Amino acid sequence: MTEKFDAQYDVVVIGGGGSGLSAAVQAAKDGLTCAVLEKESQLGGSSAFAEGHAAFESDEQIKRGINVSKQEALNAYITYSHWRCDQAVVSRFVENAATTIKKMRDEEGAVYNDVTITAPDQPGELVTWHLVEGEIAHLLKLLEADARRRGVDIFLSTAASKILRDGSGKITGVIAKDADGEDVRLGAKAVVVATGGYAASPAMLNKYGKFKIGERIINAGGPGNTGDGLTMMKEIGAVENSNIGTMALFPLMRDKTVTSHVNNAGMQPYLWVNKYGRRFSDEAVGLNFGFAGDVTAGLPDAMYWCILDQNHIDKLVDKGNEVGLGIYVHNYEKLVNLPTELEADAADAKRTNVFKGGSIEELAGKIGVKPEVLRTEIDVYNGYARAGDDKKYHKDQKYLRPYEKGPFYAVKMETGIMVSIGAMKINDRMQAVDANGEGIPGLYCVGCDAGGLCSEAYQLTIPGTANGFALTSGWLAADDIAEKVKAGAL
């Protein structure tokens, strides 16, 4: 029986974030007809929250005198993942990421203002973060405009529900539902899945993650990242990558934005205590927000309290922070809004994540811990700070400051997630593979849906990894499709 389609394309892209738009634009450049299905009412996905993307040996690095070789980057990915990354996939990304810079700048009009790092004190961080004027959100607008100019059909508020594969194993199209709940049937020689992972699906977070806190976790990324692409691919024989549970976690305040100065204060490497009022780590883990997110997720109730006194607050206001958060709060930025924001939050009876006390004991009572426990932790910590020697966790003495001047504050930090990183197994052509390791003809998987880049944790020592891979994997997939279409292989 011949399928009936509402329209026919060479390629249908499911998902309109960075990887999907990169694929769609390149497909059109390659002379293919293309459609993009986006379940949300606007394009962008989680890529719209990003600032820059990684590349290696790019001309933007070279003209700034920055030397990060492809070999150095490849070695960093391999060792960071404990050799559990897919070396073929990582190598293809590393080899082509500099070309992505040229494509976005010379063909799309992006302007690169800087190439930098995210955390100056983080050991081993490579200078790979290519910052785009207007951030990635602006780059996505450029890609969208180019896609429309080149005749790409973009369907918003249209959620793909099924990828079609015929008896011979070839991809034939996609079924979706539009905003009115009507079926949309699009024929295609190839499908690119770019649905952004599963960070917005509590059930999948519990299924694949090691922490099982799906209902508690705070999603800071795209609301549409509910794992739809994974489900559709698995239905037609694609298989999961062995590192499917990798997530970009970080400490975050509930009901706060990433630009909040109180939120940023809660990430500083001062004194952190768990729900029972006990210190649990060298707080300098916060220099790598991914590691800090993993630590937070493993704590009771997946949270901690960051304790501040007036001296800490004065330091953050007058001299600046120790740890930033991307370009939302810069490294060493003066947190001038912190006092006003703290006072307002502490005075809000409905808010349960900022408390103020005239004494440590009063503060302990407000956050529900035993006063004697928190008092002991403070006294021990103060001893370490005054001696300049953290005998319990050996934190760098420059982050050790005693708690001496009230009032005292407790800021509750919980576990946030930006994106899941990697899900389905692919080959180095960005093609989804089956249980035998064979590429599925016409089925491609890119961005955060694609596995192989990381293992236990997101690679924060190479800043911009997720977006670099998203943008690069998108056009690589499109080029491979074009090659096969022109050869009559699809």
Distance N to C terminus? 19 Å
Largest sheet, described in full? 8 strands, mixed
What count of helical segments does DSSP give?
A: 14
- Helicity level, as a percent range? 25-40%
Q: Structural class, please?
A: alpha/beta
Uncertain regions spanning at least 5 consecutive residues: none
Rg for CA atoms: 24 Å
- Percentage beta strand: 15-25%
Characterize the overall form. Answer: elongated
What is the mean pLDDT?
95
Instruction: Tell me the number of strands.
Output: 17
Folded structure, characterized:
The structure is a single chain. This protein is α/β, with parallel strands linked by helices and 490 residues long. The protein has 14 helices and 17 strands. The strands form 3 sheets. Strands 1, 2, 6, 7, 8, 9, 16 and 17 form an 8-stranded mixed beta sheet that branches. Strands 10, 11, 12, 13, 14 and 15 form a 6-stranded mixed beta sheet that branches. Strand 7 and strand 8 form a beta hairpin. The two termini are 19 Å apart.
